Amino acid sequence: MTDRQIQIVIDSFWPLLKAGLMYTLPLAIASFVLGLIVAVLTALARTSGIRILDFIAQFYVWIIRGTPLLVQLFIIFYGLPSVGIILPPFVAALIGFTLSVGAYGSEIVRAAIQSIPKGQWEAAYSIGMTRGQALKRVILPQAARVSVPPLSNSFISLVKDTSLASVITYIEMFRQSQQIVARTYEALVLYTEAAVIYLMFTSVLFVLQGWLEKRLSRFSAQ
């Protein structure tokens, strides 16, 4: 690296890191939390035994899983204004990522619910619980522990996928790196630096995921 490139890396590190902390992570966290709510509701609809709810949930999952996330973001941000719906970049990105997390997460939650032995349901019913009470007090707590590893992986993937928000002008970390590249013409250096910062974020999340899984396995063993 030349002295100029080294100086660019040093000067751009904080703006990139700041964009990651102030825009990338908040978008990922908000999308994941809202998406998790959608995922649970969708999974409950899929396992409710009510045909219309099951059909609506399946259709939603089919649409979201069957189309690229990038295309969905384009439809929300660039397509909806043609019918009079104009959304700020953050809101458009939040909706797109929330729907994506909800669809993929619902399959994880549904599989976790279905993995709970039927005897757990029967035991809950035998002591007078309704289906809702059995779900809340018996099934969902157990399903939550089963869901943690795959949902954790989904969140880590979401942090990386937020870079797609750059195409709808949301100024997260990757968009910030693009703007700096436009001024300095050092694409390789700056995109590599952005990749390193993403790697820093995901590495911390991998450590937290491992710690959480150990805690849950210890709790289950007890």
TrEMBL record:
Predominant place of localization: membrane
Alphabetized CDD domains for the sequence: TM_PBP2 (cd06261)
Q: Where in the cell is it found?
A: Cell membrane
Keyword Transport in the entry? The reply is yes
- The segment(s) forming the ABC transmembrane type-1 domain are 21-209
Question: What Pfam family is a match, any one?
Answer: BPD_transp_1
Q: How does it sit in the membrane?
A: Multi-pass membrane protein
Q: PROSITE patterns this protein is in?
A: ABC_TM1
InterPro entries in alphabetical order:
AA_ABC_transptr_permease_3TM, ArtM/GltK/GlnP/TcyL/YhdX-like, MetI-like, MetI-like_sf
Membrane-crossing ranges are: 20-45, 57-80, 86-105, 188-212
Q: Which domain of life is it from?
A: Bacteria
Keywords carried by this UniProt record: Amino-acid transport, Cell membrane, Membrane, Transmembrane, Transmembrane helix, Transport
Note whether Hydrolase occurs among the keywords. Answer: no
Into which family does the record put it? Belongs to the binding-protein-dependent transport system permease family.
Q: What's the protein called, per UniProt?
A: Cystine transport system permease protein
- Species lineage, top-down? Bacteria, Bacillati, Bacillota, Bacilli, Bacillales
